[in-house]
Amino acid sequence: MDYTILICDDDEDISSALEIYLRQEGYNVLRAENGAEAVDVVTGDEAVHLILLDVMMPVMDGIRAAVKIRETSNAPILFLSAKTEDTDRVLGLNMGGDDYITKPFNPVELMARVKAALRRYARLGGLDGGVGGTSGGVGGTGGTGTGGGFSSGAVDVPTDGPAPVGGFAPTDGPAPVGGTGSCDGEGTQADIFKTGGLVLDDNQKRVTVDGEEATLTALEYNILKFMMGSMDRVFTSSQIYEAVWGEPAFHVSKTVSVHIRHIREKIEINPKEPRYLKVIYGLGYKVVKQP
Predict the structure, then answer these.
(1) Tens digit of pLDDT for each residue in 229-249?
(2) What is the pLDDT at residue 278?
């Protein structure tokens, strides 16, 4: 499948450089100069499978654009920003971003992150076979579609790539959570995870709570699957990050906590008194096994 990536950045030099790298990797490329244009492109007739979205832009900034995009699209959003504070990163994730990349960045790592985001999205049904399921696929903010997917495996990233465009030191890109885990509770298949009324069906990429479908993003789904594969085990933020993102964990507690909070909001009747996904203060998180 030919994937289409939207670059939204008001810096012509960065946009042009990104387009060159993306086209070399075989992607189709669309461009926008501000958030309003990005929203128009995403809501247009041509399918967009991933968005590289600058944060600081005229007319409409990237944060506001992401909120609008999330009304109609589940495609992964990778924020590009010169802002490096944790609060900015958390804000971007809260507003529907799947990743947050600070400028200047190394294009080799950026390509790895693009491939990883597309792989996760495809693996959960958002690509390669269409957007399935009643919730409209899985990507940025929601959906639990079926079908499609890449095989798992890390992205190979050379260490002698091009000079920074706008530098992370190159590292391995994120990899999907591996393994299928075993069935808990009343489930009969190795790819069904169950505790109480919470069921994750990895065949259909669906999460239900007391029979009602919960709409999770790709990252949220992978985090929940990883934790439900080992009920009652306490995982640190670093363990969750390295398993789901496939990257070394450095100062990731806030990033993980944002996603955990989002999951709890979607699977718990009262997120402040969670039944399934609990915080073990000072230690980490666990999914509680229930009959």
Answers:
(1) 999 999 999 999 889 888 888
(2) 92
Total domains in the chain come to: 2
Burial of 72 from C-beta contacts in 10 A (0-12 / 13-18 / 19+): exposed
What domain range is 164 assigned to? 1-172
The CATH number assigned to the domain holding 202 equals 1.10.10.10
Average pLDDT over residues 152-158: 31
For residues 160 and 39, membership in a common domain is answered with: yes
Q: What average pLDDT score do residues 172-201 get?
A: 60
Beta strands in 82-223, from DSSP E residues, in sequence order: 99-102, 192-195, 198-201, 206-209, 212-214
Tell me which H or E stretch contains 122: helix 107-123
Which whole-number Å values give the CA distances from 81 to 48, 158, 213, 273, in the listed order?
Answer: 21, 24, 34, 35
DSSP state letter for 1:
-
Of 119, 141, 172, the last residue of a domain is: 172
List CB contacts of 218: < 8 A, sequence separation 6 or more.
Answer: 76, 98, 120, 121, 123, 124, 126, 138, 139, 140
Domain identity same for 207 and 159? no
Question: What sign for the dihedral angle of Cα 65, 56, 102, 95?
Answer: negative
pLDDT by residue (tens digit) across 104-116? Answer: 888 888 898 899 8
Q: If you ran DSSP here, which 8-state letter would residue 172 be given?
A: P
Q: Are 162 and 262 within one domain?
A: no
Q: Of 172, 202, 229, which marks where a domain is finished?
A: 172
Of the candidate ranges 33-37, 91-95, 228-232, the one whose mean pLDDT is the lowest: 91-95
User: Do 172 and 246 contact (CB within 8 A), yes or no?
Assistant: yes
Tell the burial category of 238 from Cβ atoms under 10 Å away from its Cβ (0-12, 13-18, 19+).
Answer: middle
